[in-house]
Amino acid sequence: MIGTIATINSGAYTNAIRQLDPEILVVAQACPLFVPLAEEGWIDHKVTSLVAKEYLFPLTLEKIDTLILGCTHYPVLRGAIAAALDPRVVLIDSGEAVAADVERVLGEKNLRNPSKQKPNLEFYVSDLPARFTEVGERFLGRKMGRVHRVSGF
Q1: Dihedrals φ, ψ of 85, to 5°?
Q2: Nearest partner of 82 among 69, 73, 98, judged by Cα
Q3: Are residues 125 and 56 in the same domain?
Q4: Residue 74 · residue 34 · CB < 8 Å
Q5: What pLDDT shows up at residue 59?
Q6: Looking at the structure, do residues 53 and 87 belong to the same domain, yes or no?
Q7: What are the φ/ψ torsions at residue 53 (nearest 5 degrees)?
Q8: ∠10-22-87 over CA atoms, to 5°?
Q9: What is the pLDDT of residues 117-140, one digit of tens each?
Q10: Does the residue 109 lie in any domain?
Q11: Helix or strand holding residue 146 (H, E)
Q12: Dist CA 58 CA 67 (whole Å)
């Protein structure tokens, strides 16, 4: 699995996987430079490819068969990450997995919104709204809606 330094150091993914099956070998690698590369929009940049190869080389030596993308930014770099690995390695987007689980739970509890109307998206951020909008639209592939800056953080 790959993630930020904080995610890797938390051991959350490793512990959760070992609870499911203690026999699974979990190899974790911090990839902190992926976050600014994704935010900068350097998706198909040669620097991103080089960084991916550098970070993921130890995982290739472990002959991994599955890689969990343990950070919200990493799916944006999926192409560079996949290119640095054996093509047989399965990539798991942790965000997609969480969204699928939320959808399942909402359905089970009959809490899904049946409306076909598009939502009005509104965001409150402590950073620059323009930067949030730029990065958010890159990540989500859609308009972000209204973004407001709040103070006090």
Answers
A1: -120, 165
A2: 69
A3: no
A4: yes
A5: 97
A6: yes
A7: -60, -40
A8: 80
A9: 888 888 898 878 888 888 888 878
A10: no
A11: strand 146-149
A12: 13
Domain assignment present for residue 32? The answer is yes
Is the model's pLDDT at 152 over the cut of 70?
A: no
> Does residue 90 sit in helix, strand or coil?
strand
Which residues on neighbouring strands pair with residue 2, listed in sequence order?
Answer: 29, 69
With 0-12 / 13-18 / 19 or more C-beta atoms within 10 angstroms meaning exposed / middle / buried, residue 138 is middle
More confident residue, 67 or 144: 67
* Domain coverage including residue 147: 114-153
Q: Rounded to the nearest 5 degrees, what angle is found at the Cα of 54, between the Cα atoms of 52 and 60?
A: 85
**Structure tokens given for 2:** 């790959």
Left, alpha or beta for 5 (phi > 0: left; psi -120 to 50: alpha)?
A: alpha
The whole-angstrom separation of Cα 27 and Cα 38 is 23
Integer Cα distance of 133 and 122 in angstroms: 11
76, 150: one domain: no
* Burial class of 81 by CB neighbour count within 10 A (0 to 12, 13 to 18, 19+): buried
| 34, burial (CB in 10 Å: exposed 0-12, middle 13-18, buried 19+) | buried
User: Tokens in use for 71?
Assistant: 């950070």
